[in-house]
Amino acid sequence: MELFYYLVFGGFGAVVLALELSKTSRDRISNTPTDFNSFKNNYLLVYSLMMGMLSLSLYLISKVINILAEIAGDWLQGPYVYYLYSQYGYGKGEIGQLFIAGFGSSMLFGTIVGSLADKQGRKRACVTYCITYILSCFTKHFPHYKVLMLGRVLGGIATSLLFSAFESWLVAEHNKRGFEQQWLSLTFSKAIFLGNGLVAILAGLFGNLLVDTFSLGPVAPFDAAACFLAIGIAVILSSWTENYGDPSENKDLLTQFKGAAIAIASDEKIALLGAIQSLFEGSMYTFVFLWTPALSPNDEEIPHGFIFATFMLASMLGSSIASRLMARSSLKVESYMQIVFAISAAALFIPVGTNLYSFEQFLVPPSNVKGGSISFSGCIQLVGFCAFEACVGIFWPSIMKMRSQYIPEEARSTIMNFFRIPLNIFVCVVLYNVNAFPIIVMFGMCSIFLFVASILQRRLMKIADTQTSKPQDWMGHKERQLEAEPLNA
C-alpha cells in the first residue's frame, strides 16, 4: 500500500511539471518590464518567508503522532502543538480552550488591526505581524497556561494581519507604481505557487527534520519560524515603501468600521465576495483538522508528513492552472470559480459517500482491527482530498484577483478582516463542539457550504456582467451623508 502514496505524489508532481513546461505565450503574462519584475520578486520573497512560517504551523497541526490512547478518536489528536501542550501537563479541555483562543482573538481583534493597517500604514502592519508572531512563537517555551494563552491570542491577531495587510500593501503599491492591472494576476498566482506550495513542502520536510531527525523537540519549528520572520522584517524595512488606505486625519476606528459596513451593505458584489470567502475558508480550515481521522478511522498507519507534502503539491497544481486561466483576458475569474466550488463540494462529499456505502464489503473484507495500512475507501478519500487541495490552489489567487477588483482601497484591510469574522465564529463553534457530530456530518456540512458558494459565485458573475467592476465611492457617499444629517435634523 506504500506504493500508492508514491504513485499519487509522483502523479501530481509529473502533472505540475508538465503544466509548467508546456506553458505558451497564451498561458502566461509575458513581456513585463524590469521594474515590475523586481517589485514582484521582492514581494514573493517576503510572502514566501511568511508562508513558510505558516506552513510549519500547519504541518505541526496536521502531523499525527499517536501518543495518548485516550485521545485516539479525537480529530485534534496528536499534532506537535497538541503534543507540546500535553507535555506541559494540560488536558483536552484546556488544550481545546487554547485552540479556541487563537481563532477567537482573530475574530475579536481582526477588524481592529485591519483598520489600523489602513490608517497607520500597511508596511507598518506587516512588520507588526512579524513581531507579534515572533512573540507568539517565544511563548511556546513556557509551560505556564496564561503564557500559552497569551501566545494563542497573539497568534490570532497575527493571522488577521497576515491575511489582510500583505495583500493590501501589494495591491496599493502595484497601483501606485502604475503597473497594469492584469499583472496582479501574475503576482498572485506565483505567490500561491511558491508560498502555499513549494515552500510549504520544504517547510514540512524541515519541520520533520528538526523534530524527528535531530530530536530537537516540538518547540524547534517555532524557533525556526521566528528566524524566518526576522529575515522578513529586515527585507520589509529595507525595501518596502509605506502606503495607506484612508489618508484623512479625522477618521477614528469607529468611523472606519461604519464605513466598511456601509461598503459591504451598499455593494452586493462585496457582500457576495465576503460570503463566498467565508464559506470556502471555513470548509478549508475544517478540512485541515478532519483529514487525519478520516484517512485513519481505525488508527491505520499513514505517512502524515508525506500526505501533507502531497496536498501541497496538489495546491501547486491548482495555482499553476489558475495562472493559465487568469492569463487569458477573455476568461473571467467569476466564470470558472463557480465550477471550482462545485468540484470542491463533490471532493469533500466523498468521505460521506464512502462511509454510507462501503467499498470494502465488495473488494476487501471490512476489519475493525486497530492499525494496519490505509483502507481502500481511505485511498479514494485521499485522491478526493488532493482534488480539494487543487481547488484551494485555484481559489487563493482567484479570490485575491476579485478582491483587488471589488474592495475599495480606502478600507481594504478593514473589509477583508470583516470577511474573516464569520469564518472565525464557525471554526470556534466546530472546536467547541468537537465531539458533538460524527466526521461524515462535518464533511457533509462543508460540502453544502461549498455548493452554496458555487451558487453565490454564479450570482456574483451575473452582477459583474451587468455592473462596472469599479468599486463604489463609498467614502464620498458616507461623507455626503454625514454632511446632510444636520439639514435633516
UniProtKB/TrEMBL annotation:
The keyword Methyltransferase does not apply. Keywords: Membrane, Transmembrane, Transmembrane helix. InterPro entries: MFS_trans_sf, MOT2/MFSD5. SUPFAM superfamilies: MFS general substrate transporter. One of its GO terms (cellular component) is membrane. It holds the Pfam family MFS_5. The chain crosses the membrane at residues 6-22, 43-61, 95-114, 126-143, 149-170, 191-210, 222-241, 270-294, 306-327, 339-359, 374-396, 417-433, 439-456. The keyword Transmembrane applies. GO terms for molecular function: molybdate ion transmembrane transporter activity. Belongs to the major facilitator superfamily. Phosphate:H(+) symporter (TC 2.A.1.9) family. This is Molybdate-anion transporter. It comes from Rhododendron griersonianum. The lineage of its organism: Eukaryota, Viridiplantae, Streptophyta, Embryophyta, Tracheophyta.
